[in-house]
Amino acid sequence: MTQCVLITGANGFVGKAVSRALLQRGDSVVGAVRRAHTAADGVREWLLDTDDFQGIEPRWPVALHCDAVIHLAARVHVMHETVADPLPAYRATNVDGALRVAAAARRAGARRFVFVSSIKAVAERSVGRPIKETDEPAPSDPYGISKLEAERALLDYGRESGLEIVIVRPPLVYGPGVRANFLQLMGAIAKGVPLPLGAIAARRSMVFVDNLADALVHCATDPRAAGHTFHVTDGHDLSVAELARALATQLHAPLRLVPVPVGVLRLAGRLTGRSAQVDRLIGELRLDSSHICERLGWYPPYTVEHGLLETAAWYRSTH
């Protein structure tokens, strides 16, 4: 059965992939965006230029009746925060903003609200085994703290209002159009820059953007998803060194991996004030994504190899 889905952050990296996946199913998609003509083709845009979704309810179009909302808009994790105490700003967008959208959607007749959180709501790293949805959360930065607070506030609101809440916690998302660290890694490999990653054996979960989009469609449409929290991954975790080798192959570039001991990398991180970045690079962060497989019968439609091939092809065509 086709339905209408509202996507906040519809013009972003993940939002465009989710839009395409819904449109391919035959669903109608409304994208809440700040700027016109920025969403994927076929998406009906709703121009909503407000801070933290303040005043969304009176601005809600009378004719807009959506079955579900996929909430992607967020104040994202940034590497170099300029505000002395950024937590209030994260809360204003990621907690208060999400609750405003959920309340407005429920009053407009939506039955389900899919909140795209982050594994950072639970932890920055795993220790010895993959992180499960039932593990006790211990976020370590303002972004992760705000995402966890939003999860809990939304679940409370869902219990009070009857709105079906689904929480999705992805790890690193990659694919055509990726930015930040993943793009920098591809750039360094493409240029043949020597990388001190040869001795890093720790594995990290990732998710190809089209796999995440497919999972979010299931979470928005499958009755069995209501009230659940899901970790979503590609189902095959690579070490950083394995990732670099795979990207070098797809980029048709020579790989220069230098086996720098992990202890030396940690020391370099402390000396340069980049311990957090080094820890993210060398630490294990594996997710257990079996719950969504068992509950919804969902399995990633694309392999890691396919995802990296698509990502590298995009990089070669645009850089």
Task: Give a written overview of the molecule.
- 42% of the residues lie in helices and 13% in strands.
- The chain has helices at residues 13-25, 56-59, 87-107, 142-161, 180-190, 209-221, 240-251, 262-272, 275-282, 290-296, 304-318, and strands at 4-8, 28-33, 44-47, 68-71, 112-116, 164-169, 172-174, 203-204, 206-208, 229-231, 238-239.
- The chain starts with a strand and ends with a helix.
- It is globular, with a radius of gyration of 20 Å.
- The model has no long low-confidence stretch (mean pLDDT 95).
- The longest helix has 21 residues, at 87-107.
- The strands form three sheets. Strands 3-2-1-4-5-6-10 form a seven-stranded parallel sheet, sandwiched between helices. It has a two-stranded parallel ribbon with strand order 7-9.
- With 319 residues, the protein is α/β, with parallel strands linked by helices.
- It has a domain at 4-174 and 207-234 and 287-301: Rossmann fold, CATH 3.40.50.720.
- Helix 5 (180-190) crosses helix 7 (240-251).
- It is an enzyme of class 5 (isomerase).
- This is N-acetyl-alpha-D-glucosaminyl-diphospho-ditrans, octacis-undecaprenol 4-epimerase.
Strand order, main sheet: write it out.
3-2-1-4-5-6-10
* Helix/strand class: alpha/beta
How widely separated are the two ends?
A: 41 Å
Relative strand content: 5-15%
For this structure, what is the CATH class of the domain at 4-174 and 207-234 and 287-301?
Alpha Beta
CATH architecture annotation name of the domain at 4-174 and 207-234 and 287-301: 3-Layer(aba) Sandwich
